Task: inverse folding
């Protein structure tokens, strides 16, 4: 896994969640639509300046931020053991759960442009790993998650406007060789662990039904908060700039309703 992560920027691990766990989480997601848990309203613009005429996040995907904080049986806290253990092995330390997301993509929603995750985080270094687990088949035709292998070696890029696919700071869009893109074949419960610097994105869903996934982000405990990197992130209102990340300072119910981003 470490070799694959270093070489490609991502590594696939089969059966991280059992079939029964996937079915239960899928049941919870269905209930979330009619629950009191509000979906994220907008992608994160790191400086807080949302361009005019920007559609809501639902144009790209339905998202619930930090369901591991839910206390009503609709969350994910009881499913974090396996992702945490694998993240610990990859990072060489007990990881901090920075945030997690439940994601639903429908056929009428747009493609998700190529981007890195790290530029959206208010932390000082990309020392972490993202765990992405589909509850449905991950295929290119189904709007599946795809990667550009090796792109993590190029360092950090600007935060991307996820509606427009261009850098939020107005710079020119980076040249991306899409012919090298890979969409891993993943079944329900399989996981792909990837670097926060690897470029990834998804096409529009061309098949019936929905694509459901659970994403969790794990940071090394030596990572520190750096508000200047993403000052509009809701956590900047809750954590001390310069302090080490701590799981006890994960987003609260209030932050869960703030603007956030999806993958």
Result:
């Amino acid at each position: 896994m470490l070799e694959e992560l270093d070489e490609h920027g991502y590594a696939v691990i089969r059966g991280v969640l059992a079939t029964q766990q996937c079915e239960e989480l899928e049941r919870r997601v269905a209930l979330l639509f009619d629950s009191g848990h509000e979906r994220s309203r907008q992608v994160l613009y790191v400086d807080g300046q949302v361009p005019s005429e920007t559609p809501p996040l639902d144009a790209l995907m339905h998202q619930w931020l930090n369901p591991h904080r839910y206390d009503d049986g609709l969350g994910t806290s009881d499913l974090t053991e396996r992702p945490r253990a694998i993240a610990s092995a990859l990072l060489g330390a007990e990881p901090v759960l920075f945030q997690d997301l439940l994601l639903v993509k429908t056929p009428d929603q747009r493609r998700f442009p190529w981007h890195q995750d790290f530029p959206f985080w208010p932390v000082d270094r990309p020392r972490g790993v993202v765990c992405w687990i589909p509850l449905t088949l991950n295929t290119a035709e189904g709007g599946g998650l795809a990667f550009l292998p090796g792109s993590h070696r190029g360092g950090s890029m600007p935060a991307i406007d996820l509606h427009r696919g261009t850098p939020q700071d107005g710079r020119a869009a980076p040249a991306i060789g899409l012919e090298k893109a890979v969409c891993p074949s993943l079944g329900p419960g399989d996981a792909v662990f990837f670097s926060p610097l690897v470029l990834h994105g998804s096409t529009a869903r061309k098949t019936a039904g929905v694509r459901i996934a659970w994403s969790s982000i794990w940071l090394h405990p030596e990572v520190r908060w750096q508000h200047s990197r993403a000052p509009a992130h809701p956590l900047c209102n809750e954590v001390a700039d310069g302090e080490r990340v701590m799981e006890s300072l994960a987003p609260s119910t209030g932050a869960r309703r703030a603007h956030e981003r999806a993958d």
